[in-house]
Amino acid sequence: QVQLVESGGGLVQPGGSLRLSCAASGSIFSISAMAMGWYRQAPGKQRELVAFITRGGIGNYADSVKGRFTISRDNVKNTVYLQMNSLKAEDTAVYYCNTNPPRDNYWGQGTQVTVSS
Length: 117
Prior knowledge:
The protein has no helices and 10 strands. The chain is mainly β.
């Protein structure tokens, strides 16, 4: 059974930074073997992909976060990270990790990010 557990969210002022973590567990699940993504869902909006990292370690970003967010992973820890800088109010959402493309049974609880003064 695969489990993805997100953490690191919180309340931050505009312009601030947060680092999200996604710890993967499961008998045969290895993040190094697949593309992994960070998704977010704001109230009243559809879930969207904000960044993903390829098996080769290349990060790709939505235009809305390009230059501000950085995705990375630690294959030894089986963990994916999202460093978020220069946060804006419109970044407020619940953030999730999953494979890219996502698998329905891999969604976790997510971690809330709130950007507000």
